[in-house]
Design goal:
With 68 residues, the chain is α+β, with helices and mostly antiparallel strands. The chain contains two helices and three strands, in the order βαββα. A hairpin with a 5-residue loop joins strand 2 and strand 3. This is GTP-binding protein.
Length: 68
């Protein structure tokens, strides 16, 4: 993900940190502890305002989650 022109909507700061989270989507993915949804986070370095953007999960990553 690229955020070359990202600006915080709360404080207009242009410095940020990025991260990634994975969460389960539905009943069966929770039962088998599969985090099949991926989101990217962009957090303002000044005020900590965070925006989440939906990403794509790979089939290989989902299979790996199932076995671990």
């Amino acid at each position: 993900m690229q955020h070359d022109k990202w600006t915080c909507i709360k404080c207009n700061n242009r410095e940020f940190e990025t991260g990634e989270i994975r969460v389960s989507g539905g009943f069966w993915s929770r039962i088998f502890d599969m985090q099949n949804k991926r989101y990217y986070a962009v957090t303002c370095s000044n005020c900590s305002y965070t925006e989440f953007y939906k990403g794509k999960s790979s089939a290989l990553g989902n299979a790996f989650d199932l076995f671990t």
